[in-house]
Amino acid sequence: MSSRPLEGLKILDFTHVLAGPFGTRVLGDLGADVVKVNSASRGGVNAPESPYYIMWNRNKRALSLDMSNEAGQQIALDLAVKADVVIDNFSVGVLDRWGLGYERVQETNPGVIYVQMSGMGDNGPWSDFVTYAPTIHAVCGLTHLTGVPGREDIGVGYSYNDHQSGLHGTVAVLAALVARRRTGRGQRVDMSQFEVGANFCGPALLDYLANGVAARSCANKLPYDQAAPHNVYRCAPAETESVADERWLAIACMTDEHWRNLRVAMGDPDWAQDTSLKNVEGRIANEALIDQNIAGWLADKDDYEMMDLLQKAGVPAGVVQNGADLQERDPQFELSDYLIELDDPLPVIGPTFADRLPIRFSRTPCNEYTRVRTLGEDNEAVLRDWLGSSDDEIQQATERGALN
User: Are strands 113-116 and 248-252 parallel, antiparallel or unpaired?
Assistant: First the structure.
């Protein structure tokens, strides 16, 4: 079998929580030797039994270092000298305080690519802020834009910007590798997760700069494009009356043709034949009426049957799927084996699952998935492979408290 695209690349991974670990997980899926540095003193979402840790740290090796210990810091520095990439998403200055700053590492490893993806970047009045997804979403504008009118405090509940920052971090690594191939030298890459989030507010910023209009939350409506109907509609209820079991269908008529196709699919009811609804301007003026009638039409119908009917009729429609739907009912995922059970059970936890890398390579397939490793499970292997350490040296490091 051909090797994966990044086989042989050494990545020293100091990232934590989601943004950084997601980015390095992608690099590990692509074949890089990612050494995840953790510590026994770090709990919560950084503990190996945490669902977060299990989710974002597959295809990595686990090295447990006590970074408050001088011997631990020395091992980390030795590893950084051997690394192609050093990456972290701590607040600014943490690696410098451990004696692992870019300036020190590049003295003996001029080819090192040093990616620091902090919340606010390495300069400015907010550079030392501690950030997580909800705070980044708020300050960059995403919370304001993704809420419900009158409830700007709601916002996107998912860690959207963490994932986007992880992907930006991955792209930064790949771009710096290309630059190193051309120039022979590595570089430091400073990435602001705050600016990543603001990037997705571009239309709102342009609207204010060009027109003086401050964007508002718009729920399922489109703030700048004209489309109607464009909403999510409740279908026949599930077996229980629980909110969690409600069934919904999204419909997005982006063109007049989509609307005509929807009319036909609904049986061309009398209300839909009003001439004022032929163009999008008229439909937007009558959105409430349209939404009310579509909701009534779907209220006793199965969501999957209606998605299939509308898609065949040429109407963009999709079931609002939940986790059970994705695993048990989604034919696309079933065909691609997107969700898989890993062969090697995790000690104490038991069987774990993985979502496949959603990229298919024809010559260098990336189909290898190893479970997340327990704390320090690869200490000896990493020190031998990267540093050539002997059994005695590893034992000494353990006795000095460097490994935990």
Answer: unpaired
Instruction: Domain ranges for the chain, please list them.
Output: 10-199+337-399, 230-332
Q: What is the largest CA-CA distance in the chain?
A: 86
Contact between residue 85 and residue 396 where contact means Cβ atoms under 8 Å apart: no
- Report the SS3 class of residue 363: coil
Output the average pLDDT for the chain: 94
Contact present, 289 and 343 (Cβ < 8 Å): no
Q: From the candidates 88, 162, 291, 378, which is the catalytic residue?
A: 162
Pair of tokens at residue 235: 């279908």
230-332: CATH topology: formyl-coa transferase, domain 3 (3.30.1540)
Per-residue pLDDT tens over the stretch 57-73? 999 999 999 999 999 99
- Pairing mode of beta strands 85-88, 61-64: unpaired
Structure tokens at 209: 């700069």
User: Is 162 assigned a catalytic role?
Assistant: yes
> Domain 10-199+337-399 is of which CATH architecture?
3-Layer(aba) Sandwich (3.40)
Given its phi and psi angles, is residue 157 left (phi above 0), alpha (psi -120 to 50 degrees) or beta?
alpha
